[in-house]
Amino acid sequence: MQALLRALADELEASGDLRSPQWRAAVEQVPRHVFLPRFYTAAPNAQGFTEYTPVTPEISGLDEWLTLAYQNETWVTQLDHSDGSWDTPGAVTGIPTSSSTLPGVVVRMLEDLQVYDGARVLEIGTGTGYSTALLCARLGDDLVTSVEYDAVLSAAAASRLASLGYRPALVVGDGAHGHPPGVPYDRVIATCSFTHVPPAWVEQAAPGAVILTTVVGSLGAYGYVRLTVSEDGTATGRFLPDTVSFMRSRTEGGPTVGSMMRPAYEAKKAGVPGRASALGGDVLGTDSFAWAVQLFMPGVLQVGLTEDGANGRWLLHPDGSWSCLETYPDGRDPQVFQGGPRRLWDEVETVHAWWAKSDRPALERYGLTVTRSEQRVWLDTPDAPDSWRLHA
To answer: Name one GO biological process term (predicted).
Structure first.
């Protein structure tokens, strides 16, 4: 077993994710397989849908289970908020609702958290308990508080942690509320994504504390940000260059594509005229541009739909605005169709012009300031003319 732990630490060190002897010692101390007694591998089926195959020592065999558990991979550990589907060796379908994030990302975030001996840490998203165990190994379990929304996951994590001698403060609840009994915290780290920084985290943090989280927008573009809390209760910091994404917090809802797609689709079918577009349908596949679009156009959702040989990239907004950019396999110029109170693709083209003029800013050129009254993303400097309010 120690050979597997050392091999994982070596791999994370070689990739640059593991950068300090303290965290290396933690990685070599915490056996990941304890937190992965069963998980799923994912692969597309013949119809293009993702299927999940259970991996357990009983189904897959001890050697394969251990080998996979120590790979630098993310493994799905729950489908559809249920703990079933483990008894059959065949593939199943469902929506992932919990996972064990690849160790490289876990360790990179822990390094980026910049902990020190004696730091009190609030972790949002206990999940399997692996990252919680690493924190306990590095700092001591008396300094670690971890919040998990799912009571079943929290109980399982508690059992696994206790089997290794770790007994941190484990809380079942909405991570957006933090955990007031443990205040003040010197570090806050979230392993699920939010549309904004929950104000409770800033309120419960000590002056000088660091908050590390991912912010996700309506188009699914993520920003990985590190904030420092000031004496006046504000928090500010820059987005980091690394791409880090997590499942969204279960407590954050919003409009669904389905409720907006039908009226938009029917309006287009009724005969909306189209026009040429210089932008291709893959433009929103560029993360830094999608990030900019969702800052300028909060609340806009996207969906792809192939029909009659045309690939449609739909944008939808709760106010009834929509656009559909169609690209064609025969090489014809893309055509855009729009309806509702706003012309969404016109706005995308305006954002693209700004983005190009601003030298296509990468995520690390942005920052975030959190005050009691608002949260604002800015470009380059906090007092820059280009800034956008984050909406919960």
So the answer is: methylation
Cβ burial of 316 (10 Å; 0-12, 13-18, 19+) is buried
Please say if 277 is a catalytic residue.
Answer: no
How far apart, in whole angstroms, are the C-alpha atoms of residue 94 and residue 76? 11
Domain assignments of the chain as residue spans, ordered by start: 34-100, 103-239, 257-357
Half-sphere exposure of 296 (CA within 13 A, CB side): 20
**Considering 85, 98, 99, 146, which one is annotated as catalytic?**
99
Does residue 56 or residue 82 have the better pLDDT?
Answer: 56
Alpha carbons within 13 A on the beta-carbon side of 273? 1
Q: 220: burial class by Cβ within 10 Å (0-12, 13-18, 19+)? A: middle
Share of the chain above pLDDT 70, in %: 98
**3-state DSSP call for residue 363?**
helix
pLDDT single digits (tens) 351-382 = 999 999 999 999 999 999 999 999 999 999 99
CA distance 227 to 209: 8
Please enumerate, as own/partner, the contacts of 201-206 that have beta carbons within 8 Å and a separation of 24 or more: 201/122, 201/124, 202/227, 202/229, 202/233, 202/234, 202/235, 202/370, 203/178, 203/233, 204/122, 204/178, 204/179, 204/180, 205/229, 205/235, 206/120
Q: What is the pLDDT of residue 355?
A: 98
HEC string for 262-302: HHHHHHHHCCCCEEECCCCHHHHHCHHHHHHHHHHCCCCEE
